[in-house]
What we know:
- The protein is 29% helix and 20% strand.
- The protein is α/β, with parallel strands linked by helices.
- The chain has one domain: Glutaredoxin, CATH 3.40.30.10.
Amino acid sequence: MRKTFSAACLSFLLVCATGCKKQKADSTSPDPRGSAGAAAGRPSSDAAVDLVLPIVGKGTEYQLASILGKKTILLAFFTTWCPYCKQSMPYLQGFYEKHRAKDFELVGIDLQEPNDLVEQFVKKYGVTFPVLLAQDQSVLYPHYAVRFLPTLYLISKEGRVTGKFEGFNPSVLDEVAKQL
């Protein structure tokens, strides 16, 4: 009986051990407080892709192609419930006010929330840069994949994605400023 039980336990452990492989820690995962992480700011040769999304509170659509290749663009993906997104808004607004005269555009993109809720959020944080609604995230993928919030994509004047920052740390904006 003991031999049968021991053999069954050993077999079970072997099956479990072969089914589980040790996974390497994802070095690109950001610190949730917004550290840039290993993937942050990594240049990409990918051409930025046009987005056509409704503008919060306006009832009209914003077409990213209207500024692609003309200005440096910072896309800021966020939600109203994300604490790090809330923390980032005053910094993003200040950065926008300081740099918008330099052929720079900051575009906020809220993920899957109602217009009224996002409109209240925009007013509460005094946001004056364009904020768009992405009700269907499938329009974003695979070009603008958002795994963490907030996520910032930096697009050069040439229309290329030159940086991706997951999470938020005010020092990220220093990296963005270097590319203006």
